[in-house]
Specification:
38% of the residues lie in helices and 25% in strands. It has 191 residues and is an alpha+beta fold. It has a 6-stranded mixed beta sheet, with helices on both faces. The chain is globular, with a radius of gyration of 19 Å.
């Protein structure tokens, strides 16, 4: 069964149809990027106004190089919370389906640094899921359960920032590769 995709006009040739579809995909990707940027901005505002983080504690859109035996790619952190020079938490900003990004966030936090980042958060700026990376499990839900800077400073002193076991790291990197490195192509081929 085919799906109707409004293109703004009836194409006069297959080439024009392909061009109109490519423009439509490009516009949808652009709008999605704008919406995610707004989610990210709201989360950063929340962290600074409600959770006590300073701008210096927060880093946005940081790329990490991840190496596999057969490929290298960049994995991006939407928001990083850094305390005393250590990344305490990575926050993934999404527009919906928070649960579907949990595994990505755990894999990311396990392998992008020389140590496991203790916490990961997946949020749409209205709700949040806080994950214990080392245990690989959900520990709480809701924006208010994101640790404050004061809580983060306590945790930093108690945690040992140990590396993820080397023999299991490649699996985590491959999970990241599946999420981050395989990009949807706007080349519509024979469409």
């Amino acid at each position: 069964m085919s799906t109707y995709i409004p293109l703004g006009k009836i194409p006069t040739s297959p080439e024009e149809r392909k061009e109109l579809l490519a423009r439509r995909v490009e516009m949808e990707e652009y709008l999605s990027h704008i919406e995610l940027a707004q989610v990210q901005r709201r989360v950063i505002d929340f962290l600074t106004s409600q959770k006590g983080y300073a701008n210096a504690d927060i880093e946005a859109n940081r790329d990490f190089k991840v190496n596999l035996p057969d490929a290298s790619f960049n994995a991006r952190a939407d928001i990083i919370l850094k305390i005393d020079g250590k990344i305490f938490c990575v926050i993934k900003c999404v527009m919906n389906s928070l649960e579907s990004w949990e595994r990505h966030s755990i894999a990311f936090s396990r392998v992008v640094e020389s140590y496991q980042i203790p916490y990961a958060v997946v949020t749409d700026s209205e709700s949040a899921r806080i994950l214990d990376v080392i245990g690989g499990r959900l520990i709480s839900e809701g924006l208010d359960s994101i640790p404050s800077k004061t809580d983060a400073m306590k945790v930093i002193k108690e945690k040992s920032f140990s590396p993820y076991p080397i023999e299991r790291a490649e699996k985590e990197k491959r999970i990241l590769y599946a999420f981050d490195a395989i990009q949807c192509s706007t080349d519509l081929g024979g469409v």
